[in-house]
Amino acid sequence: MPDTAPALAPPSAPPPAPPIPAALAAEIRKGLANQLAHPLGHAVTLAIGISMYLGLQYVMGQGALRADLMPATLIAIGAYWFLQYSGQVMVADLIEEQRTGTFAAAHMSVAPLWAAMAGRLATAALFALPIAVLASLVPALAVGIRIPWHPAALVPCLLLAADILAFTFLMAAIAVRTPAVGAIHSLLTSLVLMLNGAFMPLALYPEWMAAAARLLPTTLAIEAIGRVLLDGAPLAAVWSDGTLPLLIAHTAALAGAGAWLLHRNRRLALADGRIGRY
Amino acid sequence: MSAITVTDLTKRYAPNGPAAVDGLSLTVEPGSIFGFLGPNGAGKTTTIKILTGLLSATSGTARIDGLDVARDRAGAMSRLGAVLEGSRNVYWTLSAWQNLVYFGRLKGLRRAAAGARAERLLTEIGLWDRRGEQVGTFSRGMQQQVAIAAALIADPAVLLLDEPTLGLDVAATRAVKDRLRALARDEGKTILLTTHQLDVVEELCDRVAVINRGRAVADLPTRELLAQSRSRDHYELRIDGDADLLLPDGFTAERGEDETVVSGRADDPETLYRLIDAIRAQGRRLHSVDQVRPSLETVFLTLVAEPAHA
Description:
The complex is a heterodimer. By secondary structure, chain A is mainly alpha-helical. Helices cover 72% and strands 0% of the residues of chain A. Chain A is globular. The termini of chain A are far apart. In chain B, a hairpin with a 2-residue loop joins β4 (59-64) and β5. In chain B, α3 crosses α4 (111-124) and α3 runs parallel beside α5 (140-151). Chain B is elongated and about 75 Å long. Chains A and B meet through α1, α4 and α11 of A and α2, α3 and α4 of B. Chain A: Residues 33-225 form the ABC-2 type transporter transmembrane domain.
């Protein structure tokens, strides 16, 4: 009987990566690279935005940048930029990708669509956050305003970010089939800019307008952050007045509606061939 | 097992609307290049979209490497690469390297494996030295090569190419054709391609299916299809001057100042004799009568002009 040593197993291909984490990582890396392909455009946009904000504050302050009015607006302008940029990264890019066809190419993935969308949402958050911080920090440093940091503010900040991202996700879910949502997104973003206190503190708004502004959960969240950061209110105070529970409920409703619409729109797009083209 | 199996596939975009694909069945054998032809609106792109999981079928099945695209989408996608017509297919703002690694990750490759595969593919298409440049700065031919490389990143068994040489110049078309031939011959890839450039099909494809109004009107090895058609009598007659003739069915005329060329199929010799008599009756001089070998284009036009088989 020949001496038969067990044959060496042939070198095998590396095992496949878990599809969902791989798709998430790929989307984030691709999304950030896509945004950073033209950094000058973002820098110019940001510079113009900051200049306009400072110019507006100068007019509001009747020829002076007033350190008593600006801190609250700095929080609001940061929130606006987070909303604006997360929409640009996720909604505008998705519309562009539907038009050019790369969304169809990406759809031939082994991972489900929701994983790709989650990756895109994470990209939106990762890219929009530093933009929002810069949009608030640069004018603050330019004028010499120092906003004290309280760890308790992290909770309303995170809830505000989650609410904005849930809204962005909802818009993106609609964009899978409806390019016109880009215009609706711009309109709603402008409305938030007008009503969230980015131009002047809500206390200076006409009463009816302030009441209307407070119908927006983002406005309430911005006020809550201001109360914790600027007035030193404890977290319990903004929880007990219902602001944070409302924000949580609003975020959950937006996210739920987004998930339902994404599922529905994907099914319809698969039926009428609109994945990869409008 | 066939690499691609389409069984009784039907797609209606509206419940009571016409069928874009109507009971289509076809199989593609592993390692072959399959030409999928048809006029605009015949149902080619619809079929490709169903195979790529971008469109759901109304009824019937589409399988890639034995896996039902509708039931096991992830499995089917892992065995499939595709380049779609009218799409960018890759991100122009990203580099060739970034694109390939991205699509590799979407196909479930680990980053290191995607990188190694991307290096090999970019080297093969001669773009390794330009791997860091944005794809948007590349020529159309290079962009198409990157799109094909992205489709190949996970080493799929099946490649679907919708009009892969559309809009390419002669040199770029040649490069793509050479690449596809090498992929089938050397790597055993199964390639299904649609194109309106019939010279590409004649040169590359082992087998051809022609569809019209969503139904297959021919599905034969390319040589057999051509041979079958060549058994029919195609003639070309060159006549002096600009001749205005009443032509028999199946004949067309290209009129010029010095010469008119009449060509077509005459299954019955009497048809040809009558045509020659008509030329003589007009007092025209007949320069030549030739029996011609029909190109695939002629065969294609003949097939799609005939009513779809029931």
